[in-house]
Amino acid sequence: MVREDRTTWKANYFLKLIELFDEYPKCFLVGVDNVGSKQMQEIRQAMRGHAVILMGKNTMIRKAIRGHLSKNPALEKLLPYIVRNVGFVFTKEDLGEIRAKLLENKRGAPAKAGAIAPCDVKLPPQNTGMGPEKTSFFQALQIPTKIARGTIEILSEVHLIKKGEKVGASEAALLNMLGVTPFSYGLVVVQVYD
């Protein structure tokens, strides 16, 4: 299959976006930070028949909306929210049900070094099941531990990562070794257009 040239593709994208705004009375503007292609594919499959998901470049979305303002001036309220990774979920169904479906499709994710933490991460006092050779990880993070029956045990609850902070390499490595997936990512509703 031959790919159409860029100008044709852009023109078709503008038409598609405007058709969707005309056809569907309601839509969500959703943030898609940290959502992988596999997860996005699963979300699209779950929404099939209930909603249409459209992603695109912010400048193209803004240009299409500005060109359509004469017919639909209410769209202007969406313009300030088109920043970062965003997309549209168009629907004719109840917004509450669609929002619930979006929340169902959140997936747990491991902590990656350099990522911004969306929530606090605390480690409860527990037996880690790791051998004593891994104590250096815990010492580097100032986590109080003891060795009990040949495994490392965390003595007290530790506030490992605070919300909004960058995840360090050693914190990410420790959480991955413990098999903890502290973060969950999915489509986040930024704005509702009704």
UniProtKB/TrEMBL annotation:
Quaternary structure annotation from Swiss-Prot or TrEMBL: P0 forms a pentameric complex by interaction with dimers of P1 and P2.
Annotated family: Belongs to the universal ribosomal protein uL10 family.
Keyword field contains Ribosomal protein: yes
Domain Large ribosomal subunit protein uL10-like insertion: 111-180
Keyword Ribosomal protein in record: yes
Pfam families, A to Z: Ribosomal_L10 (PF00466), RL10P_insert (PF17777)
Species lineage: Eukaryota, Metazoa, Ecdysozoa, Nematoda, Chromadorea
Source organism of the structure: Strongylus vulgaris (Blood worm)
Protein name in the entry: Large ribosomal subunit protein uL10
GO cellular component term, pick one: cytosolic large ribosomal subunit
Alphabetized GO MF terms: large ribosomal subunit rRNA binding; structural constituent of ribosome
Chain segments annotated as transmembrane: none
Function of the protein: Ribosomal protein P0 is the functional equivalent of E.coli protein L10.
Keywords: Phosphoprotein, Ribonucleoprotein, Ribosomal protein
GO biological process entries: cytoplasmic translation; ribosomal large subunit assembly
